[in-house]
Design brief:
36% of the residues lie in helices and 23% in strands. By secondary structure, it is of the alpha+beta class. The chain folds into 2 domains: 29-139 and 380-418, no CATH class; 142-363, Transposase Inhibitor Protein From Tn5, Chain A, domain 1. Helix 1 runs parallel beside helix 15.
């Protein structure tokens, strides 16, 4: 509750006879002191400058207060810190940590803050392919799409012999009347249905799509773009496309077959497929009931749909009996038996896509990303700025202080190795 004598002072229950009062008058204090790690990470990989280079700025130089790199960095850092809404930046533009990350402690004009507010950032996000009278900053969508792939390629000193491109679609829930919202029955919510492509831990594609389309919509175009880009740098690399049954579409498989790309895709079960492994399922049931443990057998065969596929393809089936019931699973692949036996193909190669699903969960910020933000970035700190240095005094009782310090040392070392100032 507010105190009677001061409407900006909030009173709380007394402690040991002392009144407890609160006011937002502490000065240059931030709740995002740990965000210095984000700046160090960017210096190590150079993402902000490279993303900013995908924009073209025709504003008059003498009137520019916020450079494109500052705007892009502010938006990226803001999202990483949990400030997805542009409105947040009307307050964040006065935050000392955002100023430090931008490398700009004071505005050139008296009516401006060190970093931008929502209106300026909104003009950046609404930039067109060509500059207009009211949007002087334009963007190059092709360069933006290539950026993650270029960083992935440059991270390798030599070309690998094989890479696996993991495709998946997942829900991105919406909580308002956003354009393109659609109710998705599987996820039981209004959402978008973005397409992700990973290679190991590296994100190569994140394409926003409405949830009204098929999970595999646009997959051929994205795979074709990625494969062409990768093969320009690594012409001899072998590429395997891996995905769940939502991507087992003839268009994608036919494209892979025509372009020398292997595939391994889940295949939704149906009566015809289950009939192909009836004897194996019966054997698995007998063994499971005898031993009291799950039992599985594998079988491969040639198969095609009645209408939607253009040709027969190799199917690998897992005939499993577990928890008192049959659990058949199927995959379709271009890989030959001579190089990949059924059991290895399913258990070691296909099931390994679970690691990619962990990356998807991280993108939802419910697991690793959320933990990193809460423990390592959301740290209260006092910014002390003098002529000679800027000191960010973080909370003495921070429980991850030692680990945070180790991360800072490693990231600064990576930045130094890259040639960026620590």
């Amino acid at each position: 509750m507010r105190t009677e004598c001061n409407s900006d002072l909030f009173g709380f229950a007394p402690v040991e006879g002392r009144e407890v009062v609160v006011a937002f008058d502490g000065g240059a204090i931030t709740s995002d002191g740990g965000a210095l790690l984000l700046g160090a990470a960017d210096r190590a990989i150079g993402l902000i400058d490279r993303l900013a280079a995908c924009f073209h700025d025709v504003r008059r130089a003498e009137w520019i207060e916020h450079e494109v790199a500052t705007l892009v960095g502010q938006r990226v850092f803001g999202i990483a810190l949990g400030y997805e809404d542009l409105n947040d930046h009307d307050h964040l533009r006065h935050d000392p940590m955002m100023a430090v990350l931008a490398g700009k402690l004071a505005a050139r004009r008296e009516d401006c803050a060190p970093v931008a507010g929502k209106s300026t950032l909104n003009r950046l996000e609404l930039s067109q392919l060509e500059p207009t009278r009211y949007h002087k900053i334009s963007h190059n969508p092709i360069a933006i799409k290539r950026l993650f792939v270029d960083q992935f390629l440059e991270a390798h000193k030599r070309a690998p012999s094989q890479i696996i491109l993991d495709l998946d679609a997942t829900d991105d829930p919406v909580h308002g009347m956003q354009e393109g919202r659609f109710f998705h029955g599987y996820y039981d919510c209004y959402c978008y249905l973005p397409l992700y492509v990973f290679c190991g831990r590296d994100l190569l594609v994140a394409k926003l799509r409405p949830a009204s389309m098929d999970a595999a919509a646009g997959a051929v175009e994205e795979v074709a773009r990625l494969v062409a880009h990768i093969r320009r740098r690594w012409p001899q690399v072998r590429i395997l496309v891996r995905a769940d049954s939502g991507f087992a579409r003839d268009e994608l498989m036919a494209w892979c077959e025509a372009n020398g790309v292997d595939y391994l895709l889940g295949l939704a079960k149906n009566d015809r497929l289950v009939a192909e492994i009836a004897s194996e399922l019966a054997r698995a049931e007998v063994k499971s009931r005898r031993t009291g443990k799950p039992a599985r057998y594998f079988k491969e065969f040639k198969w095609t749909t009645r209408r939607s596929w253009s040709r027969e393809r190799r199917i690998v089936a897992k005939a499993e009996f577990t928890s008192g019931e049959a659990n058949p699973r199927f995959v379709v692949t271009s890989l030959k038996r001579a190089e990949c036996k059924p059991k290895y193909l399913y258990e070691k190669l296909y099931c390994a896509r679970g690691e990619m699903e962990n990356r998807i969960k991280e993108c939802h910020a419910n697991a690793t990303c959320g933990t990193i933000r809460l423990k390592f970035l959301k740290i209260g700190a006092l910014a002390r700025i003098s002529v000679r240095r800027i000191k960010i005094a973080m909370a003495s009782g921070c429980p991850v202080a030692q680990t945070w310090g180790e991360a800072a040392i490693l990231l600064n070392a990576a930045a130094s190795a890259r040639g960026s100032p620590a």
